[in-house]
Write a structure and sequence with these properties.
By secondary structure, this protein is an all-beta fold. Helices cover about 0% and strands about 55% of the residues. The termini are far apart.
Length: about 120
């Protein structure tokens, strides 16, 4: 049973910080590429940040310099540190995993966690 469980979302004011966590199970986490996506109301889901199995990272232009993705393979957990939050960051944030089975690559999604940035 593959599971991706996000936590850490909530309501914060502009300029504040939040740290999201995604606890993974059911696959070999250390070999997987992990990422965070978000979907705001009325908008399509977009990639926020990704981290490969070897630690290479990439970010959406809108969050560069503010967000940091990291992983702890010993804890099977990926994090998203979000600083200097803006109202435009309000969205449901989803954890994503790209991993491998004998038949090929598999993509899995978490249930999402709400982040609301409002004054």
């Amino acid at each position: 049973q593959v599971q991706l469980v996000e936590s850490g979302g909530g309501l914060v004011q502009p300029g504040e910080s939040l740290r999201l966590s995604c606890a993974a199970s059911g696959f070999t986490f250390s070999r997987a590429s992990m990422s965070w996506y978000r979907q705001a109301l009325g908008k399509e889901r977009e990639l926020v940040a990704g981290i490969s199995n070897v630690g290479a990272t990439n970010y959406a232009d809108s969050v560069k310099g503010r967000f940091t993705i990291s992983r702890d393979n010993a804890k099977n957990t990926v994090y998203l540190q979000m600083n200097s939050l803006k109202p435009e960051d309000t969205a449901v944030y989803y954890c994503n995993a790209l991993y491998y089975r004998s038949y090929g690559k598999v993509v899995s999604w978490g249930q999402g966690t709400q982040v609301t940035v409002s004054s």
